[in-house]
Amino acid sequence: MNRTLKRAAVACLAMFALLMVNVNIIQAVRAENLQSDARNRRNFFERYAIERGRITAGGKVIAQSVDTGNKEFRFVRKYPDAKLYAHVTGFFSPESADAIESTENKLLDGSSADLLLRRSIDLFTGEPTRGANVDLTINPKAQKAAYDALRQSGKRGALVALDPKTGGILAMVSLPTYDPTELSGTDKGKVFSRYDELAKAKDQPLLNRTIGQTYAPGSTFKVVTTAAYLEDDSSRGPDTTVEAPQRLPLPNTNISLPNYGGAACGSGQVTLVYALEKSCNTPFGSIGMELGYDKMKEQTEKFGMGEPIAVPMPVAKSDFGPKEDQAAVAMASIGQRSNRMTPLQMAMIAAGIANDGTVMKPYLVNKITDSKGDELDAADPKELTTAVSSETAGKLRDMMVSVVSNGTANLAQVPGVQVAGKTGTAETSDGKPPHAWFISFAPAEDPKVALAVIVESGAASVGAEATGGHTAAPIAKAVLEAVLNK
């Protein structure tokens, strides 16, 4: 009898031990996987049980949670001006999120360790848990101006504007856009079906072209080539004479680099400022070969290329291209070949010149406050790189002002304001019309805004540089006026 009891006791102890092991495995080892498992209905309902914090910009609410009164789906996300801010706010779907809704998720849903004190106070007072509010650097007037101007072009494109002195992002618009409300509902079937439609769409409305896509920058990159040339010898300036042949022979090839349409650039020898005003190809291709790949690559890195950047969304890597031969350097130095830039990177180049040669780290989050409005964190602007000396920045500024006053970018002129800029037209390899670019900052003497705009396939087949000015520059002008005319 005792032996039977002992065996039963041992069996019970063994089962109890196995039960404890299983419980610990579930709670400690598998907890995270179980929590994120799409089949976990409790997790699904919990996403809608907490009032997520607001996302605001310039005092304007651009994302907020609304109480539905439904016990299962208590709070749902709403986006006033949804399409205008889609690539900034992102969406909050039944199983995922995007953009700020994703990167700041733990703050927005109240689970961040930074909100421990707030949660403790709410628990003591019996108040429901609420997420923190995220305030962005976006200027609503600039955002609206960029959106409206890009839409009028009827093309795909992007614009990003920065405060050159801080790096704060004032506008971030990508077209085509989408309605994040459609992806933030509670019906998985409808949400997932709509997401699949958008993801498969040929024009890629979910893509944030300002930071997620790279393009050949075309002639806007000539300001970087000019920067490298001026930094290489401080005695050089806007009036330095440079060779400007009608065609530039490319070493070890049987081809030559022409100016647009094979036109002459002045008399064959022109000043550096004239070459930039008229956006001649041959002087800058020649300068690139004279400096060599290593110096050109180094200058791009001084403008921030190669640095891992998150705003807080991750930014695609811009690249001058691999080291090949001198012919490739010539092409890359005029913004073609393997030279690939995001619109944000080109805006950073303009901002670096505007800010006396210092490139600030770009950022989108201005401050974080708890549900009671108490500030938890605030932006702390940081220097990213020193691109050029203050002296070189001044020379570049004067030349870019001349491009707007006397060159290809006259449609970017703002009455009573001195505007600096550079047009660009980037050829594509798919046979489509070239992309139209423009980078700019203003006021030139005390810059408040720097930007880059691209209109995909926005350049006409005739007068490519002029259409960079005709298509992209007016879009930039609208944003400059929105920021400066308060």
Automatic annotation (TrEMBL):
Ranges of residues in domain Penicillin-binding protein transpeptidase: 157-481
Pfam families reported for this sequence: PBP_dimer_2, Transpeptidase
Keywords in alphabetical order: Signal
Signal sequence interval, chain numbering: 1-28
Keyword Signal: yes
Domain Penicillin binding protein A dimerisation, chain residue ranges per copy: 52-134
Database matches in InterPro entries: Beta-lactam/transpept, Beta-lactam/transpept-like, PBPA_dimer, PCN-bd_Tpept
The organism's place on the tree of life at top rank: Bacteria
Keyword Signal: yes
Protein name: D,D-transpeptidase PbpA
Organism classification: Bacteria, Bacillati, Actinomycetota, Actinomycetes, Streptosporangiales
Gene designation per UniProt: pbpA_1
